[in-house]
Write a structure and sequence with these properties.
heterodimer, A: about 120 residues, mainly beta, 6-stranded mixed beta sheet, 4-stranded antiparallel beta sheet, 12 strands, B: about 110 residues, 7-stranded mixed beta sheet, globular
Chain lengths: ~120, ~110
C-alpha cells in the first residue's frame, strides 16, 4: 500500500521569503500523480500544483514549484515570495495512474504560518 | 455555479441520532468520494463510487452508508451517531479516465456530535 509522509507538522516563514515543505512517499508503482493541496481556514481544499511521475521536469505554478526526486521518492514544495494569504495547511497527496486510478492518499499535513 | 456542493455545511446533533450529508457535482464526473478529516486534520478516504457502484469501501463502521441515486449525487447517511463521528466530511469527484488525476472537492461539512 502507498503511504505519504510529511515530517514537518508546522513551518513558519517571513513574508516575502521562501519556504520549502517536505514530502516523501512510498510506492511500488512506476506511474502515479503527486499533488500539493492547500487548505486555508475556510477549509476548502485547493489544488496548488500537480506532478506526473513520468515527467522529469519539475512542475511550476507562479510562485509555487516542486522538487520531484523519483528515485528518492521525494516531492517537496517551494513557495517563493511568501504572502500572508499563503498561510494554511498544506497536504501532499499521491494517486495511482491509469485504470480506475483509485483515491487520493494524503499526508498528515504541514501548517504554514506567514509572519508579516 | 459550485462544481461540487455539499449540504449542510454545518451540522450539530446529539449522540444516537441519524443524519445525512448530501453531495452533488455538476462536472459530469463518473467517480465520487467521501473523505473524513479528523480533529488532527488527517484526511482519510471512506467511500468511492464509480457510476453508482461502490469501488472502495475502507474500514468504516457499518453505521455509515453511502447512497448514490445517480452519478451526480453521493449522499452519506450516518446512523446512531457517536462522539467520535465529529469531523469534517468532504465530498469529491473526478472523471473516470482523468488526464490530470485531480480530485475536485466540495467545501466540507462540519459534523459536531454532542
Amino acid at each position: 500500500a502507498q503511504t505519504v509522509t510529511q515530517s514537518q507538522p508546522e513551518m513558519s516563514v517571513q513574508e516575502a521569503e521562501t519556504v520549502t515543505l517536505s514530502c516523501t512517499y512510498d510506492t511500488s508503482e512506476s506511474d502515479y500523480y503527486l499533488f500539493w493541496y492547500k487548505q486555508p481556514p475556510s477549509r476548502q481544499m485547493i489544488l496548488v500544483i500537480r506532478q506526473e511521475a513520468y515527467k522529469q521536469q519539475n512542475a511550476t505554478e507562479n510562485r509555487f514549484s516542486v522538487n520531484f526526486q523519483k528515485a528518492a521518492k521525494s516531492f517537496s514544495l517551494k513557495i517563493s515570495d511568501s504572502q500572508l494569504g499563503d498561510a494554511a495547511m498544506y497536504f501532499c497527496a499521491y494517486r495511482s495512474y491509469g485504470g480506475s486510478q483509485g483515491n487520493l492518499i494524503f499526508g498528515k499535513g504541514t501548517k504554514l504560518s506567514v509572519k508579516p | 455555479d459550485t462544481a461540487v456542493s455539499q449540504t449542510p455545511k454545518y451540522l450539530v446533533t446529539q449522540m444516537g441520532n441519524d443524519k445525512s450529508i448530501k453531495c452533488e457535482q455538476n462536472l459530469g464526473h463518473d467517480t465520487m468520494y467521501w473523505y473524513k478529516q479528523d480533529s488532527k486534520k488527517f484526511l482519510k478516504i471512506m467511500f468511492s463510487y464509480n457510476n453508482k457502484e461502490l469501488i472502495i469501501n475502507e474500514t468504516v463502521p457499518n453505521r455509515f452508508s453511502p447512497k448514490s441515486p445517480d452519478k451526480a449525487h453521493l449522499n452519506l447517511h450516518i446512523n446512531s451517531l457517536e462522539l467520535g463521528d465529529s469531523a469534517v466530511y468532504f465530498c469529491a469527484s473526478s472523471p473516470a479516465d482523468s488526464h490530470t488525476g485531480e480530485l475536485f472537492f466540495g467545501e466540507g461539512s462540519r459534523l459536531t456530535v454532542l
